[in-house]
Design goal:
The structure holds 2 protein chains of 2 kinds. By secondary structure, chain A is of the alpha/beta class. Chain A contains 11 helices and 8 strands. Chain A is globular, with a radius of gyration of 18 Å. Chain B folds into 2 domains: about 230 residues, Rossmann fold (3-Layer(aba) Sandwich), CATH 3.40.50.970; about 140 residues, Rossmann fold (3-Layer(aba) Sandwich). In chain B, helix 1 crosses helix 2, helix 3 runs parallel beside helix 4 and helix 7 runs antiparallel to helix 8. The N and C termini of chain B lie far apart (about 60 Å). The chains are: A alpha/beta, B alpha/beta. Strand 2 of chain A pairs parallel with strand 9 of chain B, so a sheet runs across the interface.
Chain lengths: ~290, ~400
């Protein structure tokens, strides 16, 4: 199948991501849609490493690496300075992992969105602190093993719903996207780019290392997350108008879970309970989209 | 033009004259009058800046790290808990070589809650790579803020203008507010060597492995040394335009002094009054006021103190387990002298407790009457605490 995406890349080959890294795929598609008039702020995350050590850089756009919890604030400052120089054309992007977004960076992100700062905040979500060695975050899903939720202490809390938290701010644009659906991802980035004010993209980015999966099924796993309704593709405009972009045929979550080492301890009963939780969430989303 | 200004407003006037482009701030007493006045300037158009009302001090400095990296002259103000919250990013700003200017109103750290003057907040940030300039008067606050931008941008390091809570921040004094043309001559537009831009895309603040990190850190040390060397040249130009200079340190009647009080901030003004009185009674006493704390002007301090018999350092701060912070630094500077004065270290005025002329005279009398200090650091003006209270 041929993808309907521009050939031009804004990433050099030879970056240092793990084989099968969803975050590297996500960056490549994001930049295809944003183009070269982009300044990127990267708080601490896997991409602090993937982008390369001094004096090399994987990205063909200017990058400002910054402290873990500062994505929302630093991007606000970059925007302010560019505006003062009369440069309103350059797109400012904060690019952060789930730890830097859901946890330590949430305050700065919430502040920036409340102020309706004019930049795109992208969270590539690999569902744990992968760069530091697979520790649980508030994005880690119910049922997952991590190095800080080992053995019988597997995570018993739900994943934080970050999009709904930002929708509660009445953010002009928020959307989920997946590396397994690049054209949908591209369209959402292009749409976000054209909107003024705060914009949020939540990109599901599989992590073979942390999820205990073979690297060659990285994209397949990301696709299954959408097809099981674990990670629905949808967008919300002005915090009000919901659009669901993909209606799956409804695979069972256990098929997704069984392929991943991080869930191998779960019993049939646990998986049934998770199936119920996923169905509840999907029902709630359909309700918000005016479909129930 | 002479105007009667509150210390906080002297900072704000200087920020306006410096044509700051991005301001980012979060409220904390007693710094708020600075950022309120700047809000007025932005609202009435007398300052054309982007003003980010962020959700914490941490984000205030983070936003300026973004703004300064993109080439904007940037300013914030804070105090106490706010500065402590910024700590991580204080290191970041100097490591990224960003000439951000921060007005820091010295306030005590909690607990217990205390909004009054105390230098422990700024002095406990001494190793963060920021230039630190301590002020004594409203005029000095205004002038030092302008100087801070000039010095910071010259060496690519951030700078802190430090003023005592209330004694300076909320005190009205006559201040000569310079004209825009003169300020523009002293402080041209900020034009950094590197800034984020899409024409020449660069990565800033990347991963720095052991084979490069150390040289980066050495360049910060070199820049601090350059700031020390460049301070008098900068003041030379400042005084050529505005007719005022302060010096990295200011010796007052030190030439023939047997006892020299070492001070900073507003305690200096009280000491000036005491020295005047003591001199009229024939006492050979002087003051060494320290304005520049980072970079630390050790050589000038040695020269000013070497002839004295005794030195009394007065610290409105304390590094628990080590004592007064100015005292530690001055003692370290003096240890290179073959013959050095006896050093007395006093802790006074913590949490805004008043340090009066009588308190300082008491300190002076102790120093005059004792050959060596009885303790490593002497706490002046402590209320007597009943023994059972201490033992409980």
């Amino acid at each position: 199948m041929q993808l309907e995406l521009p050939d031009r890349d804004y990433m050099f080959p030879g970056h240092v991501a793990c084989p099968g890294c969803g975050a590297a795929v996500a960056m490549r598609f994001l930049l295809k849609a944003l183009g070269e008039k982009t300044v990127m702020v990267i708080p601490a995350c896997c991409w602090s490493i993937i982008a390369g050590a001094y004096p090399q850089s994987t990205l063909k756009i200017p990058v400002l690496h910054t402290a873990f919890e500062t994505g929302g604030a630093v991007a606000s400052g970059v925007r302010a300075a560019l505006d003062m120089r009369g440069d309103t054309q350059t797109t400012v992007v904060a690019w952060a992992g789930d730890g830097g977004t859901f946890d330590i960076g949430f305050q700065a992100l919430s502040g920036a969105v409340e102020r309706n700062e004019d930049f795109i905040y992208v969270c590539y979500d690999n569902e744990a602190y992968m760069n530091t060695g697979i520790q649980r975050s508030s994005s880690t899903p119910y049922g997952a093993w991590t190095t800080t939720t080992p053995g019988r202490d597997w995570k018993k809390m739900r994943k934080k719903n970050i999009v709904e938290a930002l929708v509660a701010h009445r953010i002009p644009y928020a959307a989920t996207a997946s590396i397994a659906y690049p054209e949908d991802l591209f369209r959402k980035v292009a749409k976000a780019k054209a909107i003024k004010g705060a914009r949020f993209l939540h990109i599901f980015a599989s992590c073979p290392t942390g999820w205990r999966i073979p690297s060659e099924i990285s994209v397949k796993i990301a696709r299954m997350a959408v097809q099981t309704n674990i990670f629905p593709l949808y967008e919300v405009e002005d915090g009000l108008r919901y659009t669901i972009n993909f209606f799956p045929k409804g695979y069972l979550v256990k098929e997704y879970f069984r392929l991943q080492g991080r869930f191998k301890h779960l019993s049939e009963q646990d998986l049934d309970q998770i199936q119920t939780m996923v169905e509840e969430d999907w029902k709630l989303l359909r309700h918000k989209a005016g479909m129930s | 033009m002479k105007r009667v200004l509150e210390g906080s407003h002297s900072v704000a006037e200087a920020v306006r004259l410096a044509k700051v482009e991005v301001i980012s701030a979060y409220p904390i007493t007693p710094q708020t009058h600075i950022v309120e006045r700047l809000s007025d300037f932005c609202a009435d158009g007398s300052l054309s800046a982007r003003y980010l009302r962020v959700e914490s001090e941490h984000s205030a400095l983070a936003a300026l790290i973004g703004a300064s990296s993109a080439g904007a002259r940037s300013f914030t103000a804070t105090s106490s808990q706010g500065l402590a919250l910024m700590h991580e990013l204080l290191h970041w700003a100097s490591g990224a070589r960003l000439p951000i200017v921060l007005a820091e109103v010295n306030r005590a750290l909690a607990p217990g809650w205390n909004i009054w003057a105390d230098q422990t907040d700024s002095l406990s940030q001494r190793d963060t790579g920021w230039i630190q300039l301590y002020c004594e008067t409203g005029q000095e606050v205004l002038d030092t803020t302008l100087q801070a931008f000039r010095l910071a941008e010259h060496v690519s390091l951030p700078a802190m203008v430090v003023l005592d809570a209330f004694f300076l921040s909320h005190t009205y004094e006559p201040v000569d507010v310079p004209g825009q043309r003169e300020v523009d001559r002293f402080l041209p537009a900020f034009n950094p060597r590197f800034r984020l831009n899409t024409e020449t895309p660069c990565a800033f603040n990347q991963l720095a492995p052991p084979d490069v990190y150390m040289e980066m850190r050495r360049s910060i040390q070199d820049a601090m040394e350059e700031a020390l060397a460049g301070f008098s040249q900068m003041e030379e130009e400042f005084s050529g335009i505005f007719g005022r200079r302060y010096g990295a340190v200011e010796p007052v009647e030190c030439e023939d002094a047997e006892i020299i009080l070492v001070t900073s901030g507003t305690i200096t003004s009280t000491s000036r009054q005491l020295v005047k009185e003591l001199r009229s009674r024939g006492e050979r006493v002087g003051i060494l006021k320290i304005k520049l704390f980072r970079p630390f002007p050790a050589e000038i301090i040695r020269q000013c103190l070497k002839k004295a018999r005794k030195v009394a350092i007065i610290d409105r701060n304390c590094s628990f387990g080590a004592g007064g912070i100015f005292a530690q630094e001055v003692k370290a500077a003096l240890c290179d002298l073959a013959e050095r004065p006896v050093v007395f270290s006093f802790i006074a005025g913590l949490g805004g407790r008043d340090v009066t002329v009588a308190d300082l005279e008491n300190i002076y009398t102790q120093v005059r009457n004792q050959e060596v200090p009885q303790r490593e650091s002497i706490w002046a003006g402590l209320h007597p605490v009943p023994a059972p209270e201490l033992n409980r």
